[in-house]
Amino acid sequence: MTRSIRALANPLVLWLWLLGCQDRLNQPQGNPTEGPAQNGGTLTMSTFVHIRTVDPAVAFDEASEPIVRLLFSRLFRVSRTGQIEGDLVAHHELSPNGLELTMELRRDARFHDGSPVLAGDVKRSFERAFHPKTPCPVPSFFDRIVGLTEYRKGKSSELAGVTALSDHVVRITLREPDATLLPILTLGITAPVCRSAGYEYDPQFDQIACGAGPFRLASWQGRDVLELKRHESYHDASHVHLSGIRWMFGVPSTSQRYRFERGELDIVHELTAADSIAFRADPRWAPLGSWSRPRSTRGIFMNTEMPPFHDVNVRRAIALAIDRNQIASLRAGHLVAANGMIPSGVVGYDPSFSGQQHDLSQALQLMKRAGWPYDPSTDTGGYPHPIDYYCAADSFDVAVAEIFQQQLQRIGIRLRIKAVSWAAYLSVTGRRQQAAMGADGWSADFDDPSDFFDPLFSSEAIQQEESQNRAFYNNPRLDSLLARARREMQPNERKKLYHLADGIVRDEAPWATVYGFRYYDVHQGYVQGYTPHPHAYLDVASVWLSVSQRTLAARARKAPPLSIASLAYRLCSGRGR
Question: Which domain holds residue 196?
Fold first, then answer.
């Protein structure tokens, strides 16, 4: 035994040795291979949140979206090149006046229960999604459909603008042209669901979640682990290779890296900043990592119906007090300062737009104008009551909220951070007169700037419950601009209109836009065919596993444990990596 190994017999020396090499990464399990895709194996994923539902009619948060996409095929989908193509739709035709979309369904599409997907199912699923008792989060996306408003209000027993012309032909009729019609039909809201789903929202549907997607729901164990199994009758089965997918919830970001290194996770998506740097810097792991495109905007919502945010001066003051560059520096590479609503990875982004800026002196002037002057030298004055700031527990939003506390204290705004579960956050912030302020964010559902304005700032997006417009912001001028932009079919003209809309949000400040976010995903070497989809969050439907490599990795994990001294030596010397 060498002198260094003898030293490890001393527990204190061993602890110090291990501490010195704790940031060393284990080697990847398996290696990228060439050749035909293999069928079989279960992919394991995780997220730090607990999702509330997988019902497509009401699930509209980032965490549930990739699972909903696996369970429920949509009428259309977005290709990796950004083109809209049919999913359940085989052929479609838009009338010359832009008011009628006729769609022919695939003959080979089947629900998880084996029944065919028919035009009547499409109509029923639309009516279920927009039923008065269904808390659909974004009905305003679809309000151009004839009769939708009347149906939502219970004034009509059916949705007149969706018609089954035959078993396999559906027509959607609009009251005016809508440039976003095909993009919004790529969303899960109107994805066809099995007849067992009924005609209105029922929370119990989560137990079966019957759709026509590439995977079916096998189990949802205590809401902590969700198991999916391959849908054998899926219409595009040749592109689906996995036997199943296992999704674990409530796994803190700080522990996902270690589970991943141990081979308990196959893809890791929610890395901390330090862990992301470590994987990117390691030449063994770098080929297995990929950046996503920046397609999200995050910031602070301010409820315009609640004090003190009914006063535009207070909202503007907060937008001016935020130092976006300081926030972006918290996670270099992952974050980019955002002054406007449209992220750089979305069609319609305008690099010439001058958005919200950091100006502390001007912020103090606006607080004085609002009647809440603050003296930084004596820490006196300002708004007299602490303001509850809502964010999801165990998320990066908590760390950002602590920085906001410091930045807003400089103008006399005192935050009281309320870190709650993801489900509680969605419930409280989406309910009228409940949350004055909190973290908010939006990731692109489809490549159109309307996605960053209609659900977040239009008056039609305001609901008593499940409101995506958490600022409860109502501005007739903005509503008019957004309506014009959706009717406008010329891309350059639409871009000008959304530039004006971004200016209203900048000046009225129902949000303080703060940063954009992009993910760095890393996968094990035996995971094949995965790179982040440019237009779809965490798309793993066509991933396949090198089953033999994964089996060898699993056997290695089950091998008899080394002695502590041998383990420390192997780790710190780099052997066995």
Answer: 65-207
